[in-house]
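Module 6 notes. Inverse folding takes a fixed backbone as the condition and produces residue identities as the prediction. Think of it as a translation problem where the source language is geometry and the target language is the twenty amino acids. Below is one complete input and output pair. Work through it position by position during the lab.
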C-alpha cells in the first residue's frame, strides 16, 4: 500500500508520526508532502522518519501555486465561505472565533452581510450557495493532478483541510479526477469546531472519538458512514511511558527543591491579540504565595514554545521556589523532559492547552482559573467546554475558588475517576490498553482493500466560470483590489499602529 500524506506544513504531521512509523513498519510506502515551511520542528521530524525508514518513507513539497491566476481570487471566496459558519448561533458564545474569521474576510462580503438581504439565515444560505458555485468554478490545477499521477498513491490523507482559506480542498478535487481514495485525518481536538468547514467531502474521515464524529456529521454535513473513530493517535506515546529521571534528579535539573510536591504551570497558545500570559502568571504566583497552604509549594513554569518572546524581560526571581524551563516536545530528549515534568508534578494548571490532555494521561489533576481577559480562549471556544463537561478539567470563577481546588487536588485528588473516564472516552474510546495508532492503520488498510473509486470528470465551465472570470478582471482594478481586501490587509495599508496590549482587569488578578 502506498499512502500520500498532504499537510499544509510538516508541523501538522507531528500528530501522525506514530501512524507514519507504523505504516512503514508494516511494509507500506509513505510519502510526506507539505505546501510550505514552518519553524515548529515538523521538517526535522519528517527527516528523522525518512532516515529511520529509508526504503519506506520519503518526503518533499507539493507543487507551487505561484503564477496561478485563479488562486488569489478563489482564496478570497473560500475565506468568505469560511466566515459564514461563525454566524450560526452555536458561536454566539465564541466571539473571538467570529472576529478571527471577519478579519480574513473580504470587506465587500462583510458589507453584504450587514444588509437586510443577507443578514438572516435564508440570505446567508443563498450567499453561501453562490460563493460555493464560484469556488467550484475554478479550474483544477493541472500541476496537482500530475503530482498525484506521479505519486500513484493508493490513498491520499489530507490534514488539516480546515485552515481558513486553505487550498487543500483543491487537492481532494484533483484526487477525484485521477481516481485516488481521499481521507481527512483530523489532527487536533479543536479542528472540527473552531476552523473552516469541510466543503470537499473526502471518502473517509478519521476522528478521535464520538464527540468529533458528531461534529463531523452535524457541523460539516459529512455522511456518518464515512466517519471512522480510531482514537487520538497523537497521544499514544504518552501511555505506558516511564520517567527518564527520578523526582529528585528532575527537580535538581530544573532548579526546584528535591523531594517536595510541585505545581506545573503550562502556558497556552492563545488567540492573537490576547493579553500576554506572563502578566497573568505573575498575578497567579502572587495569589499562590498569599495562600496559607500553598505559599511554600514549589512551581515549575513551562512557557509555550510559540510565545517565548512574551517572556523577554519578565523576571520571576522575586518568587522563591519557582523555576522556568521547557520547549517543544518534538524529539526523544525533549519529550522525555516534558513527560518528566508532567509525571513528577502533583497538579497541572493553565488557561487552555492540549497539555491538559497529556497531564490527564499522566494521571495528574488539571485545573484552570476562568478569567475574563482570557474568556475568548476559554469558555469562548467549544473545545474547552469538552474538557470541562467531560470531567478532565476543574475550573473556578475566582482566584479564591481556584486556590481551594488546587490545595484539594494536591492533598486528596478527588477528580481522578472523572479524569480516567475522560481519557477513555476522548482519547482511547476502544479501551485504555488499545493503541489508537493501530486502529488508524488497520482502518486505513481495510479501506484500501476495497475497490478504488473510478476517476470522475469535474465540470467547471458555465455561468459560474464566467462570473468568476468577471470577478477576477474586476479585482485587478484599483477599486476591485480595495473591496477584495480583508480587514488585516486594509489595516496594514492604512499603516494604523496596533493597539497596546491591555493590562489584566484588576479585580480578577
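Target side of the pair, the amino acids:
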Amino acid at each position: 500500500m502506498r499512502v500520500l500524506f498532504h499537510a499544509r506544513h510538516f508541523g501538522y504531521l507531528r500528530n501522525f508520526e506514530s501512524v507514519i512509523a507504523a505504516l512503514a513498519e508494516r511494509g507500506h510506502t509513505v510519502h510526506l508532502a507539505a505546501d510550505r515551511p514552518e519553524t515548529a520542528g515538523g521538517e526535522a521530524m519528517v527527516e528523522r522518519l525518512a532516515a529511520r525508514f529509508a526504503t519506506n518513507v520519503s518526503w518533499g513539497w507539493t507543487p507551487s501555486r505561484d503564477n496561478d491566476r485563479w488562486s488569489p481570487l478563489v482564496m478570497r471566496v473560500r475565506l468568505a465561505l469560511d466566515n459564514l459558519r461563525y454566524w450560526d448561533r452555536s458561536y454566539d458564545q465564541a466571539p473571538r472565533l467570529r472576529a478571527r474569521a471577519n478579519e480574513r474576510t473580504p470587506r465587500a462580503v462583510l458589507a453584504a452581510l450587514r444588509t437586510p438581504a443577507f443578514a438572516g439565515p435564508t440570505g446567508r444560505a443563498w450567499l453561501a450557495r453562490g460563493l460555493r458555485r464560484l469556488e467550484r468554478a475554478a479550474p483544477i490545477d493541472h500541476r496537482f493532478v500530475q503530482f498525484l499521477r506521479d505519486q500513484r498513491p493508493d490513498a491520499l490523507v489530507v490534514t488539516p483541510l480546515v485552515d481558513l482559506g486553505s487550498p487543500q480542498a483543491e487537492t481532494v478535487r484533483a484526487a477525484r479526477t485521477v481516481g485516488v481514495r481521499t481521507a481527512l485525518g483530523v489532527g487536533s481536538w479543536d479542528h472540527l469546531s473552531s476552523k473552516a468547514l469541510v466543503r470537499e467531502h473526502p471518502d473517509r474521515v478519521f476522528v478521535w472519538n464520538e464527540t468529533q464524529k458528531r461534529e463531523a456529521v452535524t457541523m460539516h454535513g459529512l455522511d456518518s458512514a464515512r466517519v471512522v473513530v480510531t482514537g487520538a493517535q497523537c497521544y499514544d506515546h504518552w501511555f505506558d511511558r516511564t520517567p527518564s529521571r527520578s523526582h529528585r534528579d528532575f527537580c535538581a535539573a530544573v532548579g526546584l527543591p528535591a523531594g517536595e510536591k510541585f505545581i506545573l504551570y503550562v502556558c497556552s497558545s492563545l488567540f492573537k491579540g490576547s493579553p500576554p500570559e506572563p502578566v497573568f502568571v505573575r498575578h497567579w504566583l502572587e495569589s499562590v504565595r498569599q495562600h496559607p497552604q500553598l505559599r511554600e509549594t514549589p512551581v515549575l513554569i513551562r512557557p509555550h514554545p510559540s510565545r517565548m518572546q512574551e517572556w523577554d524581560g519578565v523576571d520571576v526571581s522575586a518568587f522563591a521556589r519557582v523555576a522556568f524551563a521547557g520547549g517543544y516536545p518534538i524529539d526523544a530528549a525533549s519529550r522525555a523532559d516534558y513527560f518528566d515534568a508532567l509525571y513528577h508534578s502533583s497538579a497541572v494548571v493553565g488557561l487552555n492547552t492540549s497539555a491538559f490532555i497529556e497531564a490527564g494521561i499522566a494521571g495528574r489533576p488539571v485545573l484552570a482559573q476562568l478569567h475574563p481577559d482570557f474568556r475568548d480562549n476559554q469558555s469562548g471556544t467549544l473545545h474547552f467546554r469538552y474538557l470541562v463537561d467531560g470531567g478532565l478539567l476543574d475550573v473556578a470563577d475566582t482566584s479564591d475558588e481556584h486556590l481551594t481546588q488546587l490545595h484539594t487536588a494536591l492533598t486528596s485528588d478527588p477528580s481522578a475517576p472523572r479524569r480516567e473516564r475522560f481519557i477513555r472516552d476522548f482519547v482511547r474510546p476502544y479501551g485504555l490498553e488499545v493503541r489508537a495508532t493501530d486502529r488508524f492503520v488497520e482502518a486505513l488498510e481495510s479501506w484500501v482493500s476495497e475497490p478504488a473509486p473510478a476517476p470522475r470528470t469535474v465540470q467547471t465551465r458555465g455561468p459560474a466560470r464566467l462570473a468568476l472570470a468577471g470577478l477576477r478582471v474586476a479585482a485587478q482594478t484599483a477599486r476591485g483590489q480595495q473591496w477584495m481586501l480583508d480587514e488585516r490587509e486594509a489595516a496594514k495599508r492604512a499603516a494604523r499602529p496596533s493597539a497596546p496590549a491591555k493590562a489584566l482587569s484588576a479585580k480578577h488578578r
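Reference fact for the lab report: Residues 496-509 have pLDDT under 50 and may be disordered.
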